[in-house]
Every structure is written in C-alpha cells, then in structure tokens.
Model the fold of this input.
Amino acid sequence: DLLSDIKAKGKIVAATEMHYAPFDILKDGEYQGICYDLFTEVAKELGVEVEFLDLPWQSILPGLEAGKFDIVNAPVTITAERMKRYSFTLPIGNATVALAKKAGDTSISKPEDIAGKAVGSQKGSAQLAQLKAFSETLASPADVREYVNIDEALADMAAGRIQAVANSMPLMGYAAVQRPGLFEMVMPPFGDPKYFGWVAPAGEDSASLVAAINKAILKMHEDGRLTAINEKWLGTAPELPTTMPAVK
Amino acid sequence: MEFDLFIRYGPALLTGFGVTILCWLVGSMGGVVVGFVLACLNRWGPRPLSWLIYAYVEVIRGTPFMIQLFILYYGGPYVGLVLSPIQAGILSFIVYGSPYFAEIFRSGFNAVPKGQIEAARCVGLSEKRILWRVILPQMLVPITAPLTNFFIILTKETAILSVVTVPELLYETQTMAAETFTFVEPFLVLSLFYWLMVVGASWLGSKVEARVTRHLKRA
Amino acid sequence: MSNQQATNGSTEDTPSDAIISVRKMSKRFDDFEALSNITLDVNRSEVLCLIGPSGSGKSTLLRCLNFLEAYDGGEVRLDGELIGWKDTISNPRRPLSNDKLRTQRQHIGMVFQHFHLWPHMSALDNVAEALVSVKGLSRSEGRDKAREALAKVHLSDKADNYPANLSGGQQQRVAIARAIAMEPRVMLFDEPTSALDPELVGEVLTVMKEMAAEGMTMVVVTHEMGFAAHVADRVAFLDSGRLVTCVPPAELFGQEPDDPRVRTFLQTYRERNVV
Amino acid sequence: MSNQQATNGSTEDTPSDAIISVRKMSKRFDDFEALSNITLDVNRSEVLCLIGPSGSGKSTLLRCLNFLEAYDGGEVRLDGELIGWKDTISNPRRPLSNDKLRTQRQHIGMVFQHFHLWPHMSALDNVAEALVSVKGLSRSEGRDKAREALAKVHLSDKADNYPANLSGGQQQRVAIARAIAMEPRVMLFDEPTSALDPELVGEVLTVMKEMAAEGMTMVVVTHEMGFAAHVADRVAFLDSGRLVTCVPPAELFGQEPDDPRVRTFLQTYRERNVV
Amino acid sequence: MSFSFDTIWQNLPYMLTAARWTILISVAGMAISLIWGTFLCAARLSQGAITRRAAMVYISFFRGVPLLVQLLMFYYMLPFIGLDLPAIQAAILAVGLCSAAYTAEILRGAIQSIPAGQTEAAEALGIPRFSLWRRILVPQAVRIGLPSLVNELILLVKVSSLASVVGIGELTRISQNITGQTYRPLEIYLAAAAIYFIINWILSVMGRLVEKKLQVG
Ligand SMILES: Nc1ncnc2c1ncn2[C@@H]1O[C@H](COP(=O)(O)OP(=O)(O)OP(=O)(O)O)[C@@H](O)[C@H]1O
Ligand SMILES: Nc1ncnc2c1ncn2[C@@H]1O[C@H](COP(=O)(O)OP(=O)(O)OP(=O)(O)O)[C@@H](O)[C@H]1O
Ligand SMILES: [Mg+2]
Ligand SMILES: [Mg+2]
Done:
C-alpha cells in the first residue's frame, strides 16, 4: 500500500499551492508556513524525507489521482462533499470565516455591518458558502462577489470596488499583519466553525498513510509542537479538535 | 464521470460561453481594426509616430496579458479609471491583440511585390486605392493563416478574463470545479467549448483563404 | 552637388516643342553608375526609340522619367514641370508628396518590361481598375472601356482570365491595354513587343502609330531594330549609362553609323536578318 | 479516353534517331483546348524552333515535354521512356512519383519565358544551386562552375547581384546560364532571347550552336524569325494548339509558304525587317 | 497606497531564478516549434493525401485543445501508456509541439505567396524536394512570415507560464506566489512584466535583424 511504498523509498512527496498565507507561502524564495512546519514534523514522525511540490490548484487533484505525488499538504477545508471523493487527515488549522476591510473604514466594525455592501470571496470555497448563508440572515443582504483567487479580491478592495473580503480567519489575519496600512481584520469570525485538513487519495490504498499521519498529528497535539507552530505564525493558537469533526 | 453535473451547471456554462464569445469577437475584431490602423500609420505616417508605434507594439506584445489586465483593472482606479469587468476585458483584449495584428499586417505589406505597386502608381492610383485594391487582396494570401492562428490564440486568452471576475467560460467552469471538487469534467467542458470556437475560426479562415487564393489556382 | 548640376541644366535653352526635357540627369545604384549625364529632349507627338545593349540603362532611364527611380543629379521636366523633386533650391532635394507625384504620373503611362499585372484581378479588371478609380468612371463604364482596349490588342476572348492563366504575349498585351486605356500624354514602353509574335508586333505597331497620330508622345525601349526603324521619329542609343547618339532612324540604319559602338551593335543584327 | 489515344500513339513507328517523340498529345485547361493532337519528333542533336502566334500553345507544349503541365491525352517519350505518367495500361493514368519525375527532368533543361529566378539568391547562387543539390558538387566547385556559365553569357561582373538588381536582359541570361550549366541531354528554351539586344542574341546564338555541335538537342520557342532561320534544323509552326507544319527553315522562309496561315504570319515580319 | 520598490528589490533575485526556467522552456520549445513546424508545413502541403490529412488533424488538434489540457495530458496521462516524462521535458514537449502547429500554418501562408514559377524552376532542374524546401521555399517563407513567426515565439515565451501546472516554478508562478505572501500584486506583476518584456524584446530585435538580412532587392 501507499504507506509501505513511501517507507520503502524513504521519501514522501507532498504537493501544495504555495500561495495561501500563512499556511503555504513562498518567502525569500523558499517554501515556508504552517503547513510546511507541520508537515516537516509529520515526515520526521514517519521517518521519511519529504519533497514539496508547488502546483496551481487546477492540477493538484489530477496529479493526486495520477499518483504524481502522495499527499496534498495544502490546507483544504473539510466539507461533506469533498469527503466523498478524498480522504482527509485530522484538522490542522482553523478555517472559520472572517472578514477583512480596508484600513480605517469606520463603517464596518462587526460582521453584521456588511449588510448591503459589496463583499468579495473566493470562488467555490467553503468560506464563500458561509458568507452567503450569513448574508441571508442580514436585513439587507450583502452583494457577494466571487473571485478566482483571494489575491484578486484583496486587490479589488484596495482599488475600492468592494468594501470587505471574507476568507478563513488565519488568512485574513495574516493579510492585515502584512499590509497594516491597507487591510484590517473585522472581529469576530462568524458562521459555523470549519477546519482545514490535508488530502490523500480515497480508498484502501491510502488508509494506512492517513492513519499514520493522524497519529503524528495527535502526538504533536500532545507535545505542544502544534501549538508552538501555530503561535509562531498567528500569534495565537486556535482550538483544534483531536477527532474528525462532524460535517453536514 | 458525473453527467448530472452538466445538467446542473448547464445554464451557467452556456452563459459563460456567451460572454466568452462576446469578449472574443468584439475584442479581436477591435484588435484587428486597431492593428491595421497601426500598421498603416507605421508605414505611411510620419517618422516619430512610427517610433511611438514601435514602442507600443514591443511593450504590449512583450508582456503577459494577465498582467496587463491586472494592472488595468486593479491599478486603473488609482488613476481614476474605473471599469466594469466586461469593459476592462474587452478593452484590454483590443489593446493586447492589436500589436500582434499590426505585426501580421506589416508582414503582409512586405510580401507584395514592389513592381505591382509601381504599376499601380503609374496608372495614377492613389495610395489609399493601392492599399485597398492591390496590396490588401494580395497580402491576404500569406497572412490569412497567421490571422486565423491569432484568432485561435485569443479564444484561449479569454480564460484570463476570469481574474477580473468576468463571468466567462473558465470562470463558470471553475465555479463548477470548486463547488463539486471535480477536475476532469470541467476540463472536458472547457475543451469542448474552446474547440467549437477554434473550429469556427478555422472554418472561416479556410473560406477566406480559398477566396483570396482563387487567382493562384491553375486550371 | 546634385543641386549644382540641376541649376546649370535648366539654364540651357529648351526647344519650345519639347514635352519631356532631360538635363544632365544621372542615377547610381550604390557605387554602380547606371546613368550619367543624360541630356535629351522628346518632342510633342514624337516617337523616340531607345536602343542599346542589355544593362545599358534603358529601363532605368524610363523609370527615372516618371520617378519610379529617384534620379540623383540633373533634371527631368514634363511640360516645364520638374518631375519628382520639389522645384525649390534646397540641398539635398526633397521629393514631392505622394499626391503631387500621383498627379504628375497621371500624364505619363508606362508598360513595364515585366508587365507587373495584378495577379488577383482578371485581365479585364487589370485594365478597368484605373479607369474606375482614377478617371472616376462607374464600374460598368470602366469595364466597357477596358473591353475596347483589350479588343485593340486582340484579347477580347481572354478578358476573364487571371494573368497566371494567360500566355506571355497575352500578358504583355494586357499590360499595353492597361496603359493605353488611360490615354496619358506621354507613354513609356519598356520592350512592349518582346513577347509578341511578328504578326502581333505589326498590330501593336499600328496601334502605336494611331496613338502617335492622335498626338501622343512615346518613348519606346526596344531590341527590335525593325520596329525601331519603322516606328521611330528618332532613335537614341544608350551604352553603359551614356547617351551615345540620338538621330532619325534613317541616319542610324540607312548608312554605316559613325560611332564604332553603334556599328558593332547593329552588325550581328543585320547579318542575321537577311533571310 | 486518354488511354485509348496513348495506346494508338505508341503503335506508330518512331524513327530510331528521335530523342523526343510526341504522339497525339493534347492538353486542355478547363474547357479551353490549348493543344490538340500534337505528333512531333525531335531528333538527337537537332535544333527545333517552335514558332506561332501568341497564345497558340508554344509554352504549353514545352511545359508538357518535361511534365510541368500534365498532358491529358497521348504520349511524350524521351529516349523511349514515357514522360510523367506511369507506363502501364490503367485508366485514368497515374503520374510518376516525385523521385522518378525528378530523374527524368534531370535530362531536360528548361529556360522559362518569365525566367523564374529565385529572388533571394544572387545570380551566382541561382546558377550554382542545382549543381550542388543535383549534381552533388561541393558549394565551391558549384560556384566555380556557375562562374564559368555566367561568363559564357557575359555576366561575370553581375554574379553577386540579386535578380531584382539586374536588368531584364541580365535576368534572362542568368536563366540561360542556370539551365546550360546542368548540361542536360535536351534543352527547352522558351523565348530565350526576348529580352536581349541584337548583339547578345548573336552571342547566345553562338553558345547554342556550340551546344548543338556537342550533341545537345534543343527545342526553342521564339518570335525572332531571323533567329529561327539561322539556328534551326527544322521549324515547327503552331496555331491554336495545332501543329500546322514542321519543315527545314529554308522551306519556310525561302519560298512563299503553302499554308495561308503561315504566309500571313510571316508577312508583316518580312515587311518590317527590310531595313 | 504606496508603491513599494523594496518589495520588488527583495524578490527580484527569486524572480530572476524563476525566469531561467521560463527561458529554458521557451528556447527549447522554440527549437521544436520551428523545426517540427517546418516539417508539418511540408506535410500539410504535400501531394500525398494521407500525409496531408494527418498534418491537418495534428494542426486542428493542437490548435483546438487548450494548451493547459495538453500539458496535463502529457504529464498525467502519458504515464498510463508507460511514458513517464519528467515535468520539465513534458512541459517543453507540450509547448513545442503545440506551437509547431501554429508555426506550420504561418509558413504555409507564406509559401502560398511564393510564385509557383519558382518551384517549377526547381522541378525543371531536378532539384530534390528536400533541397527545394531548404534552399528555396523556407528562406523566402521565413522572410515573408517573420513578423508572424516572432509573434508566435513571443506567445510561446508567455505560454511557458503554463508549465506551472506540472510543478515548474517559472516566472509567472513564482510571481503569483510572492504576491500571495507580500500582498503587493501590482509591484510584483510589474516587475514580472518587465522581465518578460526584456526576454521578448531581445527576441523581437533579433527578429528584425534577421528580417533586414533576408530583405533583398
Ligand atoms: N536596383 C538596382 N541595384 C543595382 N543595380 C541595378 C539596379 N537596377 C538596375 N541595376 C543595374 O543597372 C544597369 C542598368 O539596368 P537597366 O535595367 O536600366 O538596363 P536595360 O538597359 O534596361 O537592360 P535590358 O535591356 O537588359 O533590360 C544594369 O547593369 C543593372 O545591373
Ligand atoms: N493555366 C491556364 N489556364 C487557362 N488557360 C491557359 C493556362 N495557361 C495557358 N492558357 C491558355 O492557353 C493558350 C496557350 O498558352 P501558351 O502559354 O502555351 O501560349 P504561347 O504560345 O506560349 O503564347 P506566347 O507566345 O504569348 O507566350 C493561351 O491562349 C492561354 O490563354
Ligand atoms: Mg530593361
Ligand atoms: Mg509562351
């Protein structure tokens, strides 16, 4: 099976899109981020070397199925629909949706203030679904705009076409830290709590690999490495469940 | 393969296809016209203008469309140019395509034998008539194929319009891909639609070519 | 330098009946001197034949007359008007605008050595084109007039052929028809009968004689001495870009020419044509 | 149908010294019959001149001889070998493969009416190209031989010019040099002297006479009757795609020809050339 | 918003490193495109019906299917038939083979405008087809089609960015990644555009030099 193959080679190949701060980033020409740190530790636990691949999102899933690599170590929001097609590992990050606004915009101070305003989010993301559901509950719904990439939503907010951007809380927080004069986080997060996991191919073949990785994640929960890594990048450590969360 | 996807997303995909075709046709036709004018000004216009055109051609042709579009759409508002996605899409398409077309036309101008232009001058045809009646019909022989090529390339460049949220084909297929977590199906749809456009463009190209090479067919 | 020459040239007397007057005209291609110091008058309604060895500059001279080739030094005047260059004293000279050039060229027809038909137009349209877009005839009037011109050169049955589907002589006749249909004041013919059979040469000759009678001025480059002898009012002999002589044909062909170059030139021809 | 003719044709006797034999050959362009039922032999080392009015099919006949134009009916044989078509009885006939055609054409040189020089090569390279890529000479050997050929036509000084920078007659001489440098068994000339002055015509004539003496067979289309009279062993007269007569020149030019068509054809020529 | 030259300055070395991939893929792809494109064009114009058809099918496939899909096919589907190409080779091959279809068409258009008499002259001399193409048709076709060919090569440089889908960190990809971390897309994209421009401008200048050289008469 997959795990024994990996052990035999002594190497695990992990693909991600190095384009999702602070989980996966390319900084100073090197791959860094929460997922990098975490997965490096996981590989140590498995006793194998790790090779990271950077792929655009549209070729990550075909590549996984074609066996070009063993696992996707990008943060993927765990949803019911996705679980049908792939195996997820235990949560490694908080994916609950939060808002960012343009720095100094006093008209938005809490999530409900987006009523009637233009809000951008990433196409097809779980956070977009949360945003839409939340918007329905408001007196006047927000004008929700969908972008292929979250960068473009942020750029459009900077250009003034939209007033807020919704995405996972860590990402929004990181953006605000990176461009403090430009973006500002809107607290608190809203909607259902959501989590990021890693993705392995579905089926028997990968079951043992997923189990082994889960074991490593649990161990890191216990010895505090998980918390330490999260604190290093986010300043705080989120509460992460140690069992697979129930999804609708 | 999940065929019910096609039914579920069918209407959205078709609308996306419509938007793609709109941007493609308007953008590339505009590009042809602007390119032709540029090529003419470059050839017959005053010297300094042709340097300007040279710079325009090299800069626009030399940089990626995605980046031009990004700068136009997201950078535009900083200088007071606020465009809607489709406006920005079509405008940037015209801007992006025109230098390529201009170069194709330039090669066409060069391909017409000098003697024929001299003959036209000798019977007193004006430069404009010479362009329309002598140069253009003949230059279409070598340039119809490159023109068709570039129309085909532009069909695929429409995909880039998705970065400014133009609800075109790729944008819609990505919605489908992201929401359903599928990849083969969206690519199939995408390929099929592009292929349709390419077939259309090739067909038109071959018709034009047959028309303009009529005189070369020996009995 | 060129300007110097030009000014000198124009001070010479020009006979009042000259329609074209060439003064000390010269033309070089890079470092090859194709024409040097040509001075020549063509009178109204005159037929002037240009003969001379291959490469002597006959075509180049014709092409300078309507400024297809920009001559370097000297002057070419049509009815007193300087051809091609702006008639002001400036150094270097500046060429006329395209529009002005076009007006000048409308009075000067030309039949090219290589015909230069437009391959994408039928024989008829090759002839009709300028009638429509220069003379302003309607397309159908233009075609009618073109048909007449083609009939003159016996090509009515090939009017709808594209040039590629015409024989060499037929192409040449289309080129002739295209030029004469425009009824210019001066016609330049560059070997107009090179591809024609003797019979047709006779016909074209007749057409040209008619045109001459109607007052058209013609400059004809030809290698057919018989043609020159029968058509020309005067024959000019060019050699290596220089005008050797310019005399009535009787003088050139009738008696043994003085110039040794002309003598050897004509010799082989005489031998061969005693059939 | 074409096959029928072909079989008939080949049953006729072929004189044993004929290098080219044409039997009941015909060629049509769409519904225009350019050649009909041509039967003609060209003997080894013979110079055959083809004359006839413009559009009578002279060029087409030459082009059929080396299958640049696929003739429809009848046969053309070179040394007994069928040109162009596969020599089997099949209907419709199928053309030879490119390679076979190429081998056949290597023995048949051709000078085109419109020269067809390659514009991107210098005069020298135009001549050297086939020497290198067909005869397999090295590029420098090829150039040397090309230089010799150009010298024969008095063009040594223009060897490096591109065709566009050559005069009409110079272009024609390059075309001649290109063909003769290959030393084929048969040469087809399509109006090889149309752009040449009388003096050069004499020179080319000398070159051709030398080639004939060395045993080359030549078919020459020409409009110059003087040329035909002096060079040809026999003269063939074509009219509207039909072969009217094929006789020694003395018979055609010496006495009043029997055929009225030939008579009128030669008439204008005679008149004009009494200088 | 302030324009940050610092961001560009800091990240430029990484972008230049990535540009090396862009150049490698482009140059190798160009070689394939030009050589294979010429053969395709010859096939497309050949008298053999089968060869001609095959070339037409090839051209309509490679022009018809998006390059992205072709790349994914080369990389992810060829392994199923036992041909597991390394990413960089797959990228070069896909880019080159696709571009060849366009090159072939450009050359075909140009060759059509070469007067038939020139081919006839070569045939009459018995010049072999290969020499006819190499010495007579291609040089003139290149002269006529050069601006369009340079167009195509420049497009090739730009589509080399699609190589990112098989995991190659070329210029566009690295720029996007840097953007994802710095949140300064305008700066980074402008810098990337400048690098692309330089590469393409060199190409274009070379094209014009060749054009000058081929312009005779
Ligand atoms: N564009 C050019 N560049 C360089 N040399 C040229 C050019 N055009 C013509 N020549 C040279 O100028 C000379 C005169 O050429 P021209 O065409 O006038 O000769 P011609 O008298 O018409 O000869 P022919 O009877 O052979 O047509 C020739 O030697 C030719 O090689
Ligand atoms: N490709 C073609 N399609 C149709 N008709 C053609 C074609 N080529 C030649 N013809 C016609 O066939 C006839 C014979 O042409 P050909 O070129 O053999 O004449 P020719 O005897 O060489 O005349 P010339 O002395 O004028 O060169 C002409 O009437 C011409 O119009
Ligand atoms: Mg000449
Ligand atoms: Mg002919």
Observations:
- Chain B has one domain: 11-218.
